[in-house]
Amino acid sequence: MRYILCLCYFFMTVPALPLHAQQLHPKKEYAATLVDLSRALLARQIKDPSDPNYGGIWCEHCRVWHTRASESVFPFTIAWSITSDPKYLDAAKNAADWLIRQQQPNGSWKETPEEWTGTTTDQLLMMMLSYERLSGRLNEKEQTTWRASMQHAAAYLYDVMDPEFASINYVATTTATLARAGQMFDNDAWLQKAATLAHRTISKMDPDGFLDGEGGRSHKNKMGVDLGYNMEMSLWGLGLYARLTHDTLVHNRVSRSLRNHLNFIYPDGSMDASWGIRSNKWTGYGGATSDGCQILFTLFADEDPRYAAASLRNLGFLRQCMYKDLIGFGPQHKEVFSTPPCIYPTFAKAKNLAMAYVYETKTTRPNVPLPCDSPGLKVFPTLDLVEVRTRNFMATITSYRYKDPAGTKGKYMYRPNGGAISHCWLKGLGFLQASSPTVYTRPEPMSFPEAPGVRSLTPRIEYTDTSGYFTNLYEYDSYLSTGSSPGKQYNISVTGQLKDKNFLTGGVGYGIDYLFTDDAYQKTITLTFHDASPDTLDIIEPFVRDNNMTVEKLDAHTLLLNYGKIRLRFSLLSGDAELIAGRDETHYWTPYPALKAFPVALRVHPPAIGSSVIIRYRITLLQ
What we know:
Low-confidence stretches: 1-15
Shape: elongated
Radius of gyration: 25 Å
Strand content: 15-25%
Oligomer: single chain
Number of domains: 2
Distance between the termini: 23 Å
Number of strands: 26
Structural class: alpha+beta
């Protein structure tokens, strides 16, 4: 039996960054991508002065005038600075004028089409950074209008912004925004509020430097870590605040935090935000609506040469996720969608690159290895998370224990968990396995495309009986331990209970023993049917589809996964299970990160209650 899976990739006109060059050219690379993205945004800006939305940027995907798209004022400003092309100067001025017309009476801007106003901090900061460079090109009336709008927005943020009002990334960004506003308008109260917010924000870092505060509200506070929002929003906001105000305490705390966050850049430059509480927006290069990591790495690049290398490696991965002239939702946007993406990733990453270009002080930096380039096992105790790297594989295994106060009514409890692999990379291929929400929902309809019938891409154990659907992905109390043995073998063990969406046990316990070597990874799954014995139980292993991928069933226990020059063997080594390839494969795709997968299942027929079964299988790279 042979399954032929063909995908036709869109090849970008912008080449990927050379990973092995001795010298990196960050300003040149930031400028190149920034101008490309600015050109795309300019093409969607209304240029007719008689149009009520003159200066606005239209999103064809959402059919909405996103007010946050006007943050493109700063990318346009820097694109003008780079190219001297007056069309970008006009675009910047027109974007700002449109934004000013959208300002609410209280000084805020709504994040259209939503009612949320916390993004006022992002829009104000981009206006101020632009004004510093454009004021000489504005007439007296325009200067007065800009300044009045910016002061009104700063006053609003001064009044409302704190962790009781917003998730922590908005608070962190506002530290930089109010600091710059305080300096620009000589307002000591705004400067003091920036300092108060900054010190309160760093107090929410856990002992490993991961910032809590992105989840649901418990009494008045929020907890929960998201790697993507930390790297692409919060930490750069705090870092910029520290630079503006010379706050060494905040600078040192962010610097220490960044050293741990660096571990989550994978060898191909992808950012591992697979496990965080907002991973439902994980694209592979970062988050769909968060800014980007280039500004964060740039602010600290003089402290550690690895930061520039990580920044440019991530930028190279981002360039592989383009859909025509816009940034897509992941590596296979064109294969997953027949429509262009929302413009959010494009303008968010453009503003990030504009800041990185401005704050980068050197034209060249050394290209040095990253932590992900060395074999080893990394444990993050405060996250119950493990990263393992061998010669050919890198994987993240997550048992992150955060529980949202809203439970399944919230949007943070469908992330991968229970000791699952949430991201698996293979040398020479890239994504081999990836995660997606256990159940796809649309908590923010404009940010989450329609995706009827999709199945999770996360490797998992599952069964359904008269009591409901049970899986390890709903286990938020699993126990994770690690070990290693000679010969670069790494062991990770997880135990827990299969649970339903309300986190109630169904009567089946499980254990997963991982063994990673240079050329293979193996799972030994122990299933204990202590109080339930469903008719069937499935172990699901989805593998990301690649161009011209083929799957061949060699015998009842073996599959060959052929990715062209790369071949993998999936082998059932022991245990009574039926190997099923490709069942319901049309449902195995996800908007974030935009990917398709081919499902491999091992079907188990459970014994009587009180018994256990052991299933062992291996994924081997064939040399």
